Amino acid sequence: MMMTDERVVFGNTFHGLFQIALHGRLSQAARYALGRMGLHVDRQPLPFYPASVWRPSIEIIVRDLFPELHREEAYRRLGQKMVTEVSETVLGRGMLALGRALGPRRLLMRMNHNFRNADNYVQMQLKELAPTAYEVHINETLGIPSYYQGIIEAALGASGAREPHVHHVRAEGSGCTYRVEWH
């Protein structure tokens, strides 16, 4: 795979999405389309993939899994699925227990670290508005801010936040700012 994009998504992220969260759920047509991009869902993932491959792979997935949904809702659901399905693994259950022990506030403060383990370009900044309300800025969403919205919602829910709400506040170039609240 030729590297023309310095931004990369690490192989563990592809493993989590394709081999855990989506294992056995993709149609043959989607698997073929992903394979043409160099993403063979049944093989050991490469150490990293260009970010330019990540975005179209997400599009293939949402068209396959959620064809009846509006694209933004499909991206949000995929983000949620990534968190909830990975939390069903042994490692995921450990991470879930840690998230519950940390609680929503501290988990949110740790999420930048989690994003940094997924790729080399996403950075998250927090601004506390109240003990259960934050402004969250993600510098790069690759044009799919609803995917990150779903990840944040599911992670907060898994950490024990009651009624987590994540709303787009504004787009800023390729980044997005969200208002995050829970009870």
From TrEMBL:
Domain of life the protein comes from: Bacteria
Matching Pfam families: DUF2378
Stated name of the protein: Uncharacterized protein (TIGR02265 family)
Native organism taxonomy: Bacteria, Pseudomonadati, Myxococcota, Myxococcia, Myxococcales
